[in-house]
């Protein structure tokens, strides 16, 4: 999946003595960029898939660069699959995992979150098919957080899924 992302991040240096002190806080305002994800998984049922993968991206705002990535477990569900028709192609997704996030000004790291928790949720629709590939829009929200960092990302993109097997 790849698409247009909007994100913001706020954090402190990864130093216990500086966390929570206003003079060390870095805030990358809302920026727009591109983000993406790559997954591999399998279907447990017609309406349920599980996978593992990686999601990441970076954004520039106000002279600061915020970037991050996370390795996650992904659950995708097609809750209206058995209604048939167009409903079978509408889905929900949940992600959870671990990653890292940072805010930099040039080469200087202003804030860093190593071992951040990452959670996400989204909706998608796969109306177009060709061979074993399915395509469609996806809207996903991700939140990465630790004691020293917090980042929010919203991605509107196009997903391409390969469905194959026995």
Care to describe what's here?
- With 166 residues, this protein is mainly beta.
- It has a single domain (2-162), classed as Porin, CATH 2.40.160.
- 0% of the residues lie in helices and 73% in strands.
- The protein has no helices and nine strands.
- The protein has an eight-stranded antiparallel beta barrel.
- The model has no long low-confidence stretch (mean pLDDT 91).
From the 3D structure, determine the CATH topology. Answer: Porin
> What is the helix/strand order?
EEEEEEEEE
Number of E-type strands: 9
The overall pLDDT, averaged over residues, is: 91
Instruction: Specify the helix fraction band.
Output: under 10%
- Number of H- or I-type helical stretches: 0
CATH class category name: Mainly Beta
Morphology call: elongated
The CATH architecture would be: Beta Barrel
The structure class reads mainly beta
Number of domains: 1
Proportion of residues in extended strands: over 45%
Distance N terminus to C terminus? 24 Å
Biggest pleated-sheet summary: 8 strands, antiparallel, barrel
Low confidence ranges: none
Radius of gyration: 18 Å
Strand order of the largest sheet: 1-2-3-4-5-6-8-9
């Amino acid at each position: 999946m790849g698409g247009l992302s909007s994100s913001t991040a706020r954090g402190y240096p990864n130093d216990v003595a500086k966390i929570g002190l206003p003079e060390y806080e870095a805030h990358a305002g809302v920026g727009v960029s591109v983000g993406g994800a790559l997954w591999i998984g399998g279907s447990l049922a017609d309406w349920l898939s599980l996978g593992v993968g990686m999601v990441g991206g970076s954004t520039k705002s106000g002279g600061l660069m915020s970037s991050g990535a996370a390795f996650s477990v992904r659950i995708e569900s097609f809750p209206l699959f058995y209604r048939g028709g167009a409903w079978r192609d509408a889905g929900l997704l949940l992600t959870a995992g671990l990653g890292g996030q940072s805010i930099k000004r040039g080469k200087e790291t202003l804030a860093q979150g190593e071992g951040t928790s990452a959670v996400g949720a989204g909706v998608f629709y796969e109306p177009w098919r060709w061979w074993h590939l399915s395509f469609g829009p996806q809207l996903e929200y991700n939140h990465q957080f630790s004691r020293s960092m917090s980042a929010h990302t919203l991605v509107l993109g196009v997903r391409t899924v390969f469905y194959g097997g026995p």
